[in-house]
Write a structure and sequence with these properties.
Largest interface: A-B, 41 and 41 residues
Distance between the termini of chain A: 62 Å
CATH architecture of the largest domain in chain A: Orthogonal Bundle
CATH topology of the largest domain in chain A: Tetracycline Repressor, domain 2
Largest sheet of chain A: none
Mean pLDDT of chain A: 83
Oligomer: homodimer
Structural class of chain A: mainly alpha
Number of strands of chain A: 0
Number of helices of chain A: 9
Strand content of chain A: under 5%
Number of domains of chain A: 2
Order of helices and strands of chain A: HHHHHHHHH
Shape of chain A: elongated
Chain lengths: 198, 198
DNA sequence: AATCTACCTGCACGATGGTCCAGGTTCACA
DNA sequence: TGTGAACCTGGACCATCGTGCAGGTAGATT
C-alpha cells in the first residue's frame, strides 16, 4: 500500500539528493563552469541520462542545487547569529571584560573557517549567488536565505542587521582572493568595527 | 623609421584593446560562461583566429580583461571616495544641516546607478572578481584595485575604510538579486548607517 | 626589385557539450 | 499471472568549442 509507494518515492528522492550533492561537490571543485551532465553523473556515480531524467535541463539542476544550498546557508548563519547574540547578551549583562570568546571572536572564527577549510564551499555559494543575478529563475531561491535571516531580527534593528550581513559578504568576497586565507585574528579588527554599535 | 614601427604597433594594440572591450561587453551580456573565441570575435567584428593570435589562451584573454576592468574600477571608486570626502569635510566644517547632497546621498546614488543602468557592468566585475578566487593567475589583477584604494587612506582609518568597502560590496551583491534595482532612496539608510562614525 | 619579417586569417580536426529516444526494468494492482 | 505505469539507461545526434596550421598580406630592409 503506502509503504511500497513511499519506498519508491523515497528511493527516487534519494537519487535526486545524491545528484544535488554531487553537483555541489563539482561546483566546489571546478566552479559552475565545470557543471555538465557528464561531470555530475560521474561524480554521483550514476549514468549520464539519469541527470536529464531527473532534471530536464541544466538550469533546473542548478536551481535545485541553489535551493538546497540556500537552506544550508540559512540555517548555518542562523546559528551563527544566535550564538553571537547570546554572547552579546551575556557580555552586556555582565558589563565589562570577562573570560570566554566575544561575539566578534565567534564571528571571526566562522569567517576564517569559511575562507580556510571551507573555502571551496564558500566560493560555490557566491558563484551560485552571482548566477542568480543573471537568471531570474534562480533569484527566489537566492533571496530566500536573506529573507529568512532578515525575518528573524527585530524591526528596529533592520538596517543595522542588513549592513552587518553586507559587511560579512564583503569581507568574505575580499578574503577569497587572498593567496593565504586570513586568520581569525586578522579578521577580528574588521569584525569588531562592524559589530560596534553606533 | 620609428613612426612607421610605432604606427604598426599602435594598430596592433588597438586591435587588442578592441578585443578586450568586446570581451567585457560579452561578459556584461552573457556572463563569463558566454566568453568563447567565437562570441568575442563576432562581438569585436574580427575573425575568430584573431583572438587566438593575440591571446594564446582564453585565460590570457580573461586576465587581460580583468586587468583593464580593475583599472577602470579603481579610478571610478577613487573619484567616488574623493567626492565623498570633500563633501564630508564640507559638512563637518559647516557643522550642521545645509543644502547639497551629503556623502551618503552621493554614495547611494552611485550604488543605485551601479545596480540600475550599469547592472551588467557590475555583474561582470563581480564575476571576474569571483573568477579570480578560483584562478590564482587572476588574483594580482583583482587585488590591485583594492590595494589602490586602501593605499590612499590614512593609516588610522584602515579598518574603518576596509569595512566600508566590504559593506559596499555586500550591498551591491545583495542588490544584484533584486528583481527591481533598489533606488538611491532605498539604499540611503544602509549607506548612512555604514558611514556613521563609531 | 627582391627579400624578409611580423602580422593576420580561413579552415579543419578532434573533443566535448546538451538533448533526445527507443528500449529495458521494476512494481503496484487487478 | 497479466498489465500498465513509473522509473531508468545506453547510445546516438548534432552543435559548439579550443586549437593548430598552411598560407596570405603589408610594410621594412637591403
Amino acid at each position: 500500500m503506502r509503504s511500497q509507494a513511499d519506498g519508491r518515492k523515497v528511493r527516487g528522492e534519494r537519487r535526486r539528493t545524491e545528484i544535488i550533492e554531487a553537483t555541489l561537490r563539482v561546483i566546489e571543485r571546478d566552479g559552475v563552469a565545470g557543471v555538465t551532465h557528464r561531470t555530475v553523473a560521474r561524480e554521483a556515480g550514476v549514468p549520464t541520462s539519469s541527470i536529464t531524467y531527473h532534471y530536464a535541463t541544466l538550469d533546473d539542476l542548478l536551481i535545485a542545487t541553489l535551493i538546497s544550498c540556500a537552506r544550508d546557508m540559512a540555517t548555518e548563519v542562523y546559528w551563527m547569529i544566535d550564538r553571537a547574540r547570546s554572547r552579546e547578551g551575556l557580555r552586556r549583562s555582565s558589563d565589562s571584560t570577562m573570560g570566554g570568546p566575544s561575539a566578534a571572536d565567534e564571528v571571526s572564527a566562522l569567517l576564517a573557517e569559511a575562507l580556510g577549510p571551507r573555502r571551496g564551499r564558500t566560493m560555490a555559494e557566491y558563484e551560485l549567488y552571482l548566477l542568480a543575478s543573471r537568471r531570474p529563475a534562480l533569484r527566489p531561491a537566492a533571496r530566500r536565505w536573506l529573507d529568512v535571516l532578515t525575518s528573524m531580527v527585530r524591526h528596529d534593528d533592520e538596517v543595522a542587521f542588513r549592513v552587518f550581513l553586507a559587511g560579512i559578504d564583503g569581507l568574505l568576497i575580499q578574503g577569497l582572493i587572498d593567496d593565504e586565507p586570513p586568520s581569525a585574528a586578522e579578521l577580528l579588527p574588521a569584525v569588531e568595527y562592524l559589530l560596534k554599535p553606533r
